[in-house]
Structure prediction request, 134 residues.
Amino acid sequence: MLSKRIHNLFLISVVLFIAHGLEEYFTGFYNVDTIFKFIFQVFENMSIPQATFLLFQIMLWILLIISYLLIFKKDWILVLLTIPALVFIFEIHHLVKVVIGWEYYPGSIVAIFFPILGFFYWKELIKLYKAKNK
Prediction:
């Protein structure tokens, strides 16, 4: 059984990820980030409708796979909860870019909160993994 604490931390992370995504969108992150450009380069030569359709399909497939895992493979819930925990670590790259460039980098204001939330989230997640393995 999951703890109330992980529920609350996950909910806070959802709000934080939405705020972070909005900050990235409104500050043009997609125009400057090399990681984003590398991952989504496959969409560059597509028309907007084609790229939108393909991205929608991929997101739908991911939603369906995750739904299946949550409905029929309840043991997967801790694995799925690990995904945002890993993203918390990855998002530190915003702060690294700020330190290296010594200037604002798109997404870095909200990214300040990822290490803080990530610390408590990882702490609770590790506790849940240990309880599961007892």
Q: What stands out?
A: The radius of gyration is 17 Å.
